[in-house]
Structures
1.
Amino acid sequence: MRLSITAKTTIGTALIEGVLLLMLVITATHFMGNIANDNLVKRASTASKLFAATTKSAVLSFDLASLDAITDEVLTNPDIVYAKVFDVDGRLLAAAGNLGLLNRPFVEDVLVDDVNDGVYDKMSPIFAGDQTYGRVELGISISEMQKTMTKIKTWTASIAFVEMLLVGLFSIFLGRYLTKQLNVLRRGAKKINAALDSGQFDVARVPEDSNDELAEVAKAFNSLVDNLEVEYQRTQSFQNALQGLNRTLEMKVKKRTQQVEAQNEELTQINQNLKSTQQQ
């Protein structure tokens, strides 16, 4: 398939821009994802440590009412879906939140990528000095973070799409601008054949109205046209001279033919006269 220079320029620029934008989108999305993951991990660690520090006195005093109140208060924080408090022997002292999440086996998540149920699970021990008296478990929903990441990806992809459209339009205008003079040269080249037949070489000349490399090409093209016109005129002059010589030669041949015919007629008449004389 034959492509014009404009099409090649547009496709080439679009491909380069597309690859760069794809790399940018992937890098930006990965970077934003890492930031969101780090923030969630830090938030979960801080929240669980604060929860453990807040419940320490109630655990040491075995104040179940206070533990229930603290656990309910923890759930007022955004995205925390469950909270549990255990003593050192693993007995549940207080719990609040989604029953399905409370009854499932607890598996602590280290990274956000480890989450497979939409909840980031975090555990912190309850310390008093160097002694461990229990632990707390928290579950933080990552649905909002996932929605935010989806929006970021959508916005980034939209920006990249708009950028591709703008680059495509710019490439088309740039290609047309760059190939405008080339198209003029192409039309001029096509007119040379007609000029060779008609002798009108002015129609084949192209304008030299720019100050770039294409203007130099246009000057060289016009110089070629000038040389062709000179050669055409020289050829026409030779042809005219040759035609004149041919006409002169034809006239001489015709005249000589007439003289020979006249002489032949004269000789024929003399022969006839001689024959008549001899017969008498």
2.
Amino acid sequence: MPGTVLYSYIAAGAVPDPGIADNNLQISESFFNSDFWYRWTPSVADLARTVNRSEGESLILSFDGINWKADVYVNGKYVGNIAGAFKRARFDITDLIKGVNDVVAVRIIKPAHFAAVKEKNAESPDFNGGQLGADNPTFHATVGWDWIPTVRGRDMGIWNDVRIEKVEAVTLNDPLVQSKITDGLASMTVSVKVADISSKSVSGTLCGTIGDIEFAKKVNLGPGESGTIMFTPEEYPQLKNQKIALWWPNGYGEPTLHKATFAFIPDGEAEAITSTDWR
């Protein structure tokens, strides 16, 4: 993770650690009154793992979190933008990566309503939030909330992971299990986002598991098509009224976690071309 602009200043030794004493009060707001550029040159080893790919595989540049907005470039070519602190983004860069001297550049756009500094204390508690709320979704509390004084830079920057992924023609993302508990029995609705990122139609079977429970559904996708596939207890009896160990908060019981998986098997193939698992 590259880090926010504030963290980048700290890492470079340009400003003191705001978590120590009253250092936060010593950091000037003027350091953040602009947009910022991040530049990444992937290592030869990283590129070797991704560029050497099989037929049907693509290279995806993935962002798990930026703030506030961003313009993304690969080798000087604009590939797209990201808007909002909690929006993930994926860009197909298969045709842009050369395998040597590649450069990923990201322009981080600062919040439009940066708002004034709040220095809260017992004599001057001030109010929570403020103008920065006009830029939501963002880290609204960074302008000052309860006992929190204003965070310099408002956590703008790249605050979560960035990576280049080698993916198959079909991708699986955002798996989710929603449970409804009645008399100690769980009924589960399961979903996952499936996307065909290739230039060809694809058909196959989407298989899923939760512990020892298995379920499957036929899926047909056109080129570039995506959608959320759902498995409901009404459609799949094995997901209804199951006696399954629950996750309990500390002090109330065991925090039981269950392994769940998804895999996509193309028609005519014996093995999955893509899979994901989580707990």
